[in-house]
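ok so i was messing around last nite and threw this chain in just to see what happens. nothing serious, just curious
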Amino acid sequence: MVTDRINDFLRTTRSDEPFVVVDLEVVRKNFERLARALPESRVYYAVKANPAPEILALLAKLGSSFDTASVAEIEMVLAAGASADRISYGNTIKKERDIARAYALGVRLYAVDCPEEVEKIARVAPGARVFCRVLTDGAGAEWPLSRKFGCEPDMAVSVLEHAHKLGLEAVGVSFHVGSQQANTAAWDTALADASRVFKTLAERGIHLKLVNMGGGFPTRYLKDVPTSEDYGKAIFGALRRHFGNRIPETIIEPGRGLVGDAGVIRAEVVLVSRKSEDPDGQRWVFLDIGKFGGLAETMDEAIRYPIRTPRDGDRTTPCVIAGPTCDSADVLYEKTPYELPVSLTVGDEILIEATGAYTTTYASNGFNGFAPLKSYVI
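result:
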């Protein structure tokens, strides 16, 4: 979304390198909209989406809690003004010394998905609260997050029972239905699994309290997506269906849905060429930003960003879009070429919209000598 504030910034800011600019007012509105849609769920912002200090400070002020994946992210959140009781260490793969450091900083809520992780926490974070992540199929998501994280629901029962026996507080279950999840019903099956884990453990005398419903809330790229209200209604309906009148404490972990449409990248066309002398051959448009510069989510063309050019309205043709590095993997859109104006030429500045999430954090630290993506927050 190119807001008036972003337009004003772009008019007065010159740079020889690509950069992203994020409008905090959009972040504020997205947070308030999602909080209204799920008023009984506490928001834990997924710091990995965009850890800009200004964003963390705003969300801390608005009352958000935070989902973190490392000690460094925990320290960023604390520096932004949030207290440790508003932090979850949500990565299921943690070094034991990092768990100890987080515990020393006051963090008491941890994600697990296997007995070995439980044992690390029990050794260095006695009495901590743990929730077990269960697998989901991620159907309907443009960026699935299955396989690497989570375990089968039956195993989650064993993992949480093991945690209880080791003196940890087994508090609940988590899942993630996949990033950029366009299917509002995706939470239904996961909540059914969570309910079964709750019931099984209750029969064994362990009463869970928490369901972490993860992220997945999308931003608009080239296609319309459901509203926050649509998600809120579908998720609350699923909670009632599977938990009845005994709905547990719930948290959500939005990342993309809070900051994605708040950011815009300004980039430049470096080259427009063909690979043969055929005048009707495939056009290639090379930008000064690519997968290694922050657009890693174009991998497998999962995320298709809206692109604006100064020549919009002219006749278009399908183009392959690629980045500037000497790496053959640095191609953004080739399987499904992107329609761009035929008149687009070297030196034209373009805007890549909805790039507030997973761009600065995915940018390399100088691959091929290209500078990391510069970020401005207004």
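not much to say yet. Residues 261-377 form a domain with the Lyase, Ornithine Decarboxylase; Chain A, domain 1 fold (CATH 2.40.37.10).
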